[in-house]
Amino acid sequence: MNVRFCLSCGTELEMRDFDGTLRPACPVCTFVHWGHYSIGVGAILVREGKVLLVRRAQDPGKGYWTNPGGYIEQKELIHDTIVREVREETGVEATVRSMIALRDQPRDIHNVYIAFAMDYVSGDPVPDGVEVDGAGFYSMEEMESMKVASFTRWLIHAALEAKSDGLLQDREPIVPLDGYGLFRG
Ligand SMILES: [Zn+2]
Fold first, then answer.
1. Which CATH number fits domain 37-169: 2.60.120.380, 1.10.1040.10, 3.40.50.410, 3.90.79.10?
2. 10 CA to middle of ligand 1, Å?
3. Rounded to an integer, what distance in angstroms lies between the CA atom of residue 185 and that of residue 169?
4. What is the pLDDT along the chain (185 residues), one digit of tens a residue?
5. What is the pLDDT of residue 102?
6. Residue 83: count of CB within 10 angstroms of its CB
7. H or E segment to which residue 25 belongs
8. Where are the bilayer-spanning segments (predicted)?
9. What does the alpha-carbon distance between residue 112 and residue 150 come to, in Å, rounded to a whole number?
10. pLDDT at site 86
């Protein structure tokens, strides 16, 4: 995937050397095309030993059960995104406890997926009927006969067999750091 024109002013880009790497850059304004990236977030929400799962109504993965999740927005903190995605897909209210796993996938659009352990607050799972057509809490036993996506199985294992608490949200950093989402071990 090549970018030929400046996304800001429309001028044809030129190749410029940045510390030994040639990147498309605008000769007129400050725009530099650093690459194609996307970031996904996912929730592992365990309630009384059962995991919140949704059945995908759309490709990719149509018909598979996965954990709730989605792609981040430009100006939304990622831990707000995952709270919103869980609410939108299932109607369940939950809060973020920690960051428990990460998947890196370098490809044409370099994808990073960040998984959160979440705590149940309220609501019974109801699928949104658009992105997902099934939603519920399921035990490991029930999941054995369900079409659960491999990556979701990995995330559930990572959450249930975690060797640490993961990175916890830092709501009161030792110095003022306004506007950041902060997680630390
Ligand atoms: Zn430009």
1. 3.90.79.10
2. 6
3. 9
4. 688 999 999 999 999 999 999 999 999 999 999 999 999 999 999 999 999 999 999 998 999 999 999 999 999 999 999 999 999 999 999 999 999 999 999 999 999 999 999 999 999 999 999 999 999 999 999 999 999 999 999 999 999 999 999 999 999 999 999 999 999 99
5. 97
6. 20
7. strand 21-25
8. none
9. 17
10. 97
Rounded-to-integer distance, Cα 49 and Cα 141, Å: 11
Sign of CA dihedral 137, 140, 144, 149: positive
> What CA–CA distance (Å, rounded) separates 137 from 164?
24
For the full predicted model, state whether its pTM sits above 0.85: yes
Going from the Cα of 109 to the center of ligand 1, the distance in angstroms, rounded, reads 22
| Distance from residue 5's CA to the centre of ligand 1 (Å) | 8
What residues does the ion ligand 1 have nearby, CB within 5 Å? 6, 8-9, 11, 26, 28-29, 31
Q: What are the pLDDT digits (tens) for 89-129?
A: 999 999 999 999 999 999 999 999 999 999 999 999 999 99
From the number of C-beta atoms within 10 Å of its C-beta (0-12, 13-18, 19+), residue 103 rates as middle
